[in-house]
Predict the 3D structure of the following.
Amino acid sequence: MLVFKLPDSDKFFCTDNSAGVSLVSFVSFDSKTVLDFKGNLCEISKEEILNLNVSPKSKSPLLEIAKETPESYAHKISQAKDFIEKNELKKLVLSRRKLLMYLDIDSEKKLSLAKSFLKFSESYPSAFCYLFEKNGEIWMGGFSEVLGKFDKKTNIFETMSVAGTLPLEENWSDKEIEEQKAVTDYIHSILRKFSSNLKVSSTKDLISGNIKHLKTDFSAEINSESLDKIISELHPTPAVCGFPKELCAQGIKSIEHFNRELYAGYIKVETEDFIYYFVNLRCASFFKNYAILFAGGGITLKSDAQKEWTETELKSLAIQNNLVFI
Ligand SMILES: C=C(O[C@@H]1C=C(C(=O)O)C=C[C@H]1O)C(=O)O
């Protein structure tokens, strides 16, 4: 079962499981896992979504997940800074998992994932939002960061550099500006190999609920045969990993000590006119009595551990604030 909504659209879609095509695929952060959803895309109403029976069955081994605290995260941030210094990097994106026990919230009520998905979709109209259940796993997520959007008719490829995070009322500092520039420079260096007419926008604010990011848009005419290569070169961008990517992915693994799974991977969606690749952020996996929320942020030598913790707390509220218990 999969339901999703495209950015700036109020229509919901599902896949009909028919054999042959797979128009939606989830690719993990390390690109090793690909979850294909079979069938054509069909519109689905809110009423039909509410009738879906999506309830987590499995209990994941809770004890394996050490509880992250501001102190333990500060220690990881200092390890990330050592790694940045030693390897002369611009940034490294560190993340954490937040455990949310439903029973702690309200023991009388039950989580409704269908209602939560609809509320989440309403709260983030410009985001790609999804909810799926496959092979006993349930994930929900959504964000407006696009790794790629390819127009099949015009061969125009669009992408964006999104990084830097602050609460809405705060002003940008050099830390966020440098952090986002590292992503912009990286995307630029790849796209210019594939297109001679690359257009780059000015940098603007991207508002996402209670926080904002810096965003630069790219547009380029490409050869359709280059599409897969462009995506594999772009992913993971320094918005979710770092540069050079293999070294940074190794550093992240040794500091974070968990498998990111689908978090910070991407979701490929093919429609009649476009092929989209959405960055899988602001997401969570759901179990019988708790959810694991994933959130991270770019670390530079200028990072303040307390602010980085707050950033992950604010990011995890995208999911947390939209959970509906009935
Ligand atoms: C890593 C995440 O977000 C990414 C990292 C950002 C940052 O470092 O400021 C901002 C937006 C996203 O590109 C996340 O939401 O977990």
Residues 93, 95, 145, 162-165, 213, 239-240, 281-282, 295-298, 315 surround ISJ (CB under 6 Å). The radius of gyration is 19 Å.
